[in-house]
Structure to design on (587 residues):
């Protein structure tokens, strides 16, 4: 019986001893710690869910007002500028589109004045140019001195330096000398062409041209009908020129054939409503680097098949929420290098979007549910953000199709919330569970949670050049499966001091984490103890609940009587024995 009691005590001691390790074993410190803050944050989210949108809209409205003021101020400055810059259209056929500016009267007056002044000069220039044609594709007659190399349906006229006083080619009015040549690609990039005139762009060969590259010239004027004979033109590049406005009529003649149009990096300040109307086959449009002041949904009217739109470096601080309303098929949007500091709602709520690039913008954090629920986004690019410091709880929730996420080169990024992707707690289907590519390299992270995403699903994972803290929480990154073969920069530990500058791939888990050492050596015996304790606890519970313990206790209580009688008996026996023993001596 006393042995039973001792055994019970032993069980209790073991239970007390093993209880703690069991907890640590199963939950891991990372998660155990996270439990508390998570609850707090999640309840906060529920409040936020209602509040955020209204706050957003208010913020936006404020900003719209602010930027309007700024725009009006700018307008006056720019008008002064225009006085110097503006020249009249080269031909009377081409009445200048009335620009939608604040002060149309003032504008008109100015224009008249300038027109008078410059008209004479203009006319002279024009006549001179009219008859100047150059022979091109003339290898047979000129050999190495040929103008433009023409071969395999490609006409290569880029960056031509002329021998005479015209340093750069300044006209597209070329006479193609090669027989039976069909220029499907005409490349006039990097020249000094200033205007595109009616019937003076590759005369006679227009219908063959499918791809026309006029980028990096100084084109300022285009006749309305200049592209009329280009009945096969599908790809037109007018980027990096001096265009200040775009007339709808210019594209009217090529509206069914045009697939790709680049008018980026010109000096376009406004686009009239419906300027692209009828370009029903246009799938790709670049408007990058233009100082367009007012963005309205009407400017995109008629682009029913547009899939890709690029508006990089347009100084956008915010966008009208309905800007993309007329773009039902828009799936790829680039907004790089714009100074907005909130994800525009026009982007967050655009259902058809699959790929968005908001790199090099002034975003400071990715907030809870930054993208609208049930988004179809597959790729988000957020690199080189000068101010991005945190991805908050559920920042990338509601993106079940997200495959590629680039968060690299963000020098201020210090926090990636353990629940950023909704893996720890979010509504069903809100997890970003399709992620295959995650770039976090060249940022300022020292910790990411082991439970943040399903790392086994990643095909590409870059974490190099971050100040990783190598301890129990990041120990999982040391595992073999994260050998970071694809990282250009192998990740290193920054802290603790003992592991500083050691490559993650070479640090042993037991050096980074004491607990790992303990588990490593005696993990099995701890597990065994835990199991034993579990059994004993169950046994104990059974004994208590079935009343056997009570019986045992009662039996234990009775024992002193038994012992007493035993002792008495024993005493008697001993007495008897002692009584008896001396006798033989006597005998
Ligand atoms: C240009 O050529 C046309 C004939 O093609 C001629 O009538 C006209 O006078 C020429 N203009 C100049 C300025 O040489
Ligand atoms: C035209 O030539 C330039 C310079 O070689 C090149 O960068 C560009 O890609 C060419 N354009 C096309 C459409 O091939
Ligand atoms: C127009 O382009 C198509 C291919 O897009 C080509 O098959 C056809 O021959 C071209 N037409 C001319 C006149 O070059
Ligand atoms: C362009 O669009 C028209 C309808 O507007 C369509 O009939 C035609 O097939 C399209 N062409 C191409 C090359 O996609
Ligand atoms: C955006 O960031 C740039 C520097 O990266 C700064 O010059 C600019 O003032 C910022 N713009 C806004 C609107 O915050």
């Amino acid at each position: 019986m006393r042995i039973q009691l001792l055994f019970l005590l032993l069980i209790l001691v073991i239970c007390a001893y093993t209880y703690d390790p069991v907890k640590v074993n199963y939950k891991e410190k990372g998660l155990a710690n996270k439990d508390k803050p998570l609850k707090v944050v999640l309840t906060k989210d529920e409040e936020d869910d209602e509040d955020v949108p209204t706050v957003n809209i208010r913020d936006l409205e404020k900003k719209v007002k602010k930027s309007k003021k700024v725009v009006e101020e700018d307008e006056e400055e720019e008008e002064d500028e225009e006085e110097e810059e503006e020249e009249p259209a080269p031909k009377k056929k081409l009445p200048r589109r009335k620009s939608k500016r604040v002060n149309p009267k003032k504008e008109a007056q100015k224009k008249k004045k300038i027109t008078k002044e410059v008209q004479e000069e203009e006319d002279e220039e024009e006549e001179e140019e009219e008859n100047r044609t150059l022979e091109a594709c003339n290898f047979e007659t000129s050999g190495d001195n040929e103008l433009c190399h023409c071969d395999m349906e490609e006409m290569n006229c880029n960056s031509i330096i002329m021998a005479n006083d015209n340093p750069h080619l300044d006209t597209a009015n070329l006479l193609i000398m090669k027989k039976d040549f069909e220029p499907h690609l005409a490349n006039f990039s990097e020249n000094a062409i200033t205007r595109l005139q009616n019937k003076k762009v590759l005369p006679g060969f227009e219908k063959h041209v499918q791809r026309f590259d006029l980028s990096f010239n100084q084109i300022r004027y285009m006749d309305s009908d200049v592209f009329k004979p280009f009945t096969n033109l599908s790809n037109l590049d007018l980027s990096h020129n001096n265009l200040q406005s775009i007339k709808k009529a210019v594209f009217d003649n090529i509206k069914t054939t045009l697939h790709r149009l680049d008018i980026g990096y010109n000096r376009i300040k406004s686009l009239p409503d419906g300027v692209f109307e009828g370009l029903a086959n246009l799938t790709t449009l670049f408007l990058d680097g233009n100082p367009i002041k007012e963005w309205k949904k009407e400017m995109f009217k008629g682009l029913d098949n547009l899939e890709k739109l690029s508006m990089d470096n347009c100084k956008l601080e915010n966008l009208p929420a309905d800007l993309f309303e007329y773009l039902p098929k828009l799936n790829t949007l680039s907004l790089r290098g714009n100074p907005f500091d909130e994800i525009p709602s026009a982007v967050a709520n655009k259902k058809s979007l699959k790929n968005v690039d908001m790199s090099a913008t002034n975003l400071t954090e990715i907030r809870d549910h930054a993208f609208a629920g049930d988004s179809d986004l597959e790729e988000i690019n957020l690199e080189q953000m000068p101010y991005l410091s945190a991805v908050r709880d559920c920042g990338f929730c509601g993106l079940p199709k997200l495959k590629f996420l680039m968060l690299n080169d963000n020098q201020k990024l210090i926090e990636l919330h353990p629940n950023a992707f909704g893996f720890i707690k979010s509504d069903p289907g809100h997890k970003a569970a399709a992620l295959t590519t995650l770039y976090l390299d060249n940022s300022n992270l020292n910790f990411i949670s082991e439970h943040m995403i399903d790392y086994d699903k990643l095909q590409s994972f870059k974490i190099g050049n971050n100040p990783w803290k190598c301890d129990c929480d990041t120990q999982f990154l040391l595992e073999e499966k994260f050998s970071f073969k694809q990282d250009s920069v192998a990740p290193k530990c920054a802290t603790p001091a003992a592991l500083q500058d050691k490559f993650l791939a070479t640090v042993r888990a037991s050096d980074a984490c004491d607990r790992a050492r303990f588990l490593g050596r005696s993990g099995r015996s701890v597990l065994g103890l835990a199991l034993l304790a579990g059994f004993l606890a169950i046994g104990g519970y059974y004994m208590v609940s079935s009343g056997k313990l009570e019986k045992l206790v009662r039996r234990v209580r009775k024992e002193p009587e038994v012992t007493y009688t035993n002792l008495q008996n024993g005493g008697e026996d001993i007495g008897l024995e002692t009584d008896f023993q001396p006798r033989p001596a006597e005998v």
User: Anything to note?
Assistant: The first strand starts at residue 134 and ends at 136. Residues 182, 207-208, 210, 232 surround 2-acetamido-2-deoxy-beta-D-glucopyranose (ligand 3) (CB under 6 Å).
